[in-house]
User: What shape does this take?
Amino acid sequence: MSLCSVLRPLAVCLPLAHVVFACVPYRPAPADPAQLAVALRQRQGGHFDLASATALAFQQNPALQALAERARAAGVATVPSDTQTEYRTQGEMLALMADPVSLLDLGPRGAANTLQRAEAVAASQELAVARWQVATRIAEAFAVDATLAALPSDPEHLDSTPFVAAGLAEPLAAAAVAAAKSRLAAEGQRRAAAHAANLAQLRELLGLAAGAELRLQHSPWSPHPEEDRDGALLRRPDLALAAARFAVADANFRRAVAAQYPSLMLGPEVPLRGDPLQLMAILRLPLFAGDGARAAAAQREAARGDLAAAWLAASRAAATAELELASTRATAAAATAALAASQRNLAAARVAADVEVDAFGALADSYTMAVRDWAEVREPLVAAARAEVQVRFARGMPALEATP
Assistant: This one.
């Protein structure tokens, strides 16, 4: 037999397969870190409110882009039909066989495609969870920025030099004023660093490089909805993801059950020498496939437990967020009240120092307390702002669609 007669069927089948089965050719697309860095630095920042910042993050946050592509990949993946081609040199026979049940997307192939669709839904829900988390962090960054911008101004400068020159200031009192000024300067630097770090994190969330311009426009929160709190909880994306993963486990159980049963492949044998067509059949008998189905059933029950655990965790997170909000609000209110009281004391001490000869010691104490309370008010106010955001998102806000 000549080599040409052996290669002839392959020469016919390979181009036909490329056309019929829509094969996708490979196209190189290298990823060079230096080029990616240049492209990221060229992205423009600008002026954003919360809605536009969130939309921009959904569009160009690299982690979200990766999850979106994985969700698209899961959405187009299907299990091919079970077909088989066999060429026999002896007798010049070409057999073309297919499983008719598989062609109808039933049986094991249908169950496997059902599993693929369930996995695609789960991948979309993973994207929704990631978007929800990014939206939460963006809202936190906006809340922190607004809080830092609205912090109480620092105490009015106190110059102890005239009192020292006039012999009206004790050395310890003058030293206390100098220490308070150092603390005042240090807290100013911490506030500037907190503001810069907050914007740096926000740039990362928006997919912007460190040098990109970023100006924020703040608007007041809408009233926190109190009705249908359980319904809002059920709309949390992480709970929907747990439900999608249960659906994946159920579909995998269906696939394992379908894999236990025999399958039949039918097709003609085409004589290449002009003889009549002949029918050919292959019966596949899977042996000992029940163990896989029993394991898949156990995995489905495990996913059911995961779903129940996810609801309990979501319920606990929402309740904890409410408690944290109440606690941080109380702490912030106490810190704000302490600062207001110390500022009033400082104002009174300044008046006394203008008319009383020995009042500098009391003025130094009042100034030290005012600086201390001013330095300590930042963290409670920022924590309360973060808690305000967390309690809203813990209740499932916003309800994000699970679409790539």
Notes: The radius of gyration is 35 Å. Confidence is low (pLDDT under 50) at residues 1-12, 14-19.
